[in-house]
Amino acid sequence: MSGERASGRRIVVGVDGSPISLAALAWAVREAGLTGDSVEAVMAWQALEDVDDSKSAARVLSRAISQTVDPDAPVKVSATVAEGYPEQVLLEVAAGADLLVVGSRGHC
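RE: above sequence
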């Protein structure tokens, strides 16, 4: 999986670009710094009317990571963008992870 380190320990965090999700990402990175885990930031998107929003979602996720994560942090942060319902995508990506982090609410 894209976020694994040699130890295989991984924290998955759901990101939708909202302030709450950025706080969840920041928390996950701090936790990973303490535990030695890697972080996999995940954004899900859904196709509407045959429009592929994967590039837009990837830009939002990339911006969220660059705004939140210190590039000098000793934590490996990877990004995953996947089409589907957010709950389903997060559960699939988090399979085998040590921790799944989500904010208290985000975009409705």
